[in-house]
Amino acid sequence: MPNNSFIRLDKLTRFESEELTQDGLLEVIVKYNGNLQEIGTLLGADIEILSPDYAIITLNIDRLADLYNFPQIEYIELPKLLTFMLRDNLESACITSVQSGTGLGLSGSGVIVGIIDSGIDYTHPDFINSGGTTRILYLWDQNATGTPPPGFRKGAEYTQNQINQALQSRTPRETVPLVDTVGHGTAVAGIAAGNGMASRGTERGVAPNASIIAVKLGNTGNESFTRTTEIMRAVKYISDHALALYMPVAMNISYGTNNGSHTGNSLFERYLDSMCERWKTVIAVATGNEGSAGHHYYTKLAKDEIETIEFTVFGSQRRLYMTLWKNFVDTITFELIAPNGRSTGIIQPLQSITTATLSGTDVSIIYAQPNHYTVAQEVYFLFRTRNSSIASGVWKLVARGVDIVDGSFNIWLPTVEDVTQNTSFLLSDINLTQTLPSTARNVISVGGYNSVLDIATVFSGRGPVDNCPQTKPDLVAPGVNILTTKSGGGYDTFTGTSVAAPFVTGAAALMMEWGIVRQNDPFLYGQRVKAFLCRGANRKFTTKFPNNLWGYGALNLCHTMDELIEYTKGGGAFM
Fold first, then answer.
1. Which of 182, 287, 321, 455 is the most buried (most CB within 10 A)?
2. Is omega for the bond preceding 437 within 30 degrees of 0, making it cis?
3. What is the rounded average pLDDT of the residues 80-105?
4. How confident is the prediction for the chain on average, in pLDDT?
5. Per-residue pLDDT tens for 277-313?
6. What domains are defined for the chain?
7. Region at 145 (left for phi over 0; alpha for psi -120 to 50; beta for the rest)
8. Backbone torsion region of residue 369, taken as left when φ is above 0, otherwise alpha when ψ lies between -120 and 50, otherwise beta
9. Tell me, what DSSP letter sits at residue 167?
């Protein structure tokens, strides 16, 4: 079901209901005002309060329609699936100099690095102090059976004492049974905060003395990836602990999705924006690997013009979405044609939900309406089969301009991690290919570049083109052949914006150590950190800055700290 749509969620198609529910239960993101206790009691719902404005409500799908009748509910949004942004150096980012004793001697001490990912190998030496104790303050496995953190309905939380007990045991997994089977989170954590113990200090991360809080993201039912709601829970969990400990925190999110308007208007993105303003917080997010994936299409349609948009579908996927965003002022009709020539016929905008079966594939087309967050309109296409793959070949979407004022629209297919590059538009647009939630306004959006060759990478997700209110990404960091911690021990190399983002997360931790912990700049968090990272970024490349590939340039912590120290000497931290 689409983000930001005014279609009532209780009108889900049977396919969406089956996919989004587990044991008849559905979770939704709500923006609310007031007390939600009455809703929980009357609807038999579980309420998880994320902030004074946002909550997750889990209820029986049959009671969803009743949720609209409560005046406390301002808006409802369904969760989306996110995939990790990985495609199977400190010197280039000028971090080693900042770490050294002859430099500023920063190590992240007194700062929390929050890892929101596939977990962490807590037995890896890089996350253990020299005395054998863990550097991890808390672990939360959202999938595990056990005692969940207070205020949350599922998972198992493990404290620092429990992790230390596990490390002292010959069978640590019996005490803390968390395993990072994917290895993605362990790799990310090693870049941001590994201390290099396994390599005797030669392969340490950016903030080697930072404390760590890690959340192993959950999934629901048969889903292979996490939901937006799981990330929202993780952000609150880490934020709560950081506030309770009065420690500044830098969080890392190396997950993303194409399912949204890419304008920062979903409840998910707006919630992250609000959490960037809570406590002394920085959130860095990878922009994704969609730059060369062929999953974005852009066009500008004139009145009475007909345009045929072709996209290929190949592979074994049984579920596929396509999300189209247009100006609500424009009237455009669409027709979907399967590889065998079967057609839905022309779909009129007032048909809010249309269903059809083409080439053995069940298709739902949903015309949504604008809401109080956006004037844009989404047309959402959901493809699904029960026992076989979606029909392979070239699909066609025919757009007809009926009444046009603007005429432009964007379409996205799922990410390369979801469907590979075998499913793509035949004519695609490389712009606006960054994934959600790097589109949120207050996070630090991080792209990747090849720091050895000093060149851009074709895969790094790009932001919008010129004349947009905000440049995205904010900056880039090393993202090609990065050596970092491997789950199970040792090290391995990884490529993707997933491993670029934790360079910035770790850099933010070093900055907050200098500013907040050492009391040089008590307000060095949030947008102030982003501003100095962008100001100090390396812009030696022959291109105009800022731009939608490099942002304000490549991470250079030496330049950033030089600028920060100069401004602080001038009283800038307190102006």
1. 287
2. yes
3. 81
4. 91
5. 999 999 999 999 999 999 999 999 999 999 999 999 9
6. 9-78 (3.30.70.2980), 96-291+436-574 (3.40.50.200), 296-425 (2.60.120.1290)
7. beta
8. beta
9. H
